[in-house]
Design brief:
18% strand; 137 residues; alpha+beta; Expressed protein; 3-stranded antiparallel beta sheet
Length: 137
Amino acid sequence: MADETITLQQYVNAARQTFLTVALLPDQNHSLEITPEGCLFLLTWTKCFTEAFSKGKSWNGDFTLADFKVCRGHVQKHKKPKKFGDEGMKNDMEKFVEEIELVFRSRDSRLRFTYPPYFSNFTFRLRNLEIIQKCLI
């Protein structure tokens, strides 16, 4: 799978368990940590959207995990974005956040929190991006 290009859906199904690890904290509580593989996945998939947005394009929320490809852990767009305006970018962010929340959620009973530290802050900021005249603020 290292050099093979597969769909994002295939990649998430195969690699999701490598994106997070549970760490024991000094106070004996447990916390989620995003692994380097999880960081690369999150970084490169986020980049697909920010690159499209920088060109005034989006998918208008009409994308699936099959519309992206992964090679060597890097997510790349397969379905080309189009010009949908500011609302299209907002629709993309809402759906993107829903998707990454599914990927990075853990139901491990040892955990006090469902997501890794700062993840909820990251998704909050994505959901509340101001998009004015095709510019992210």
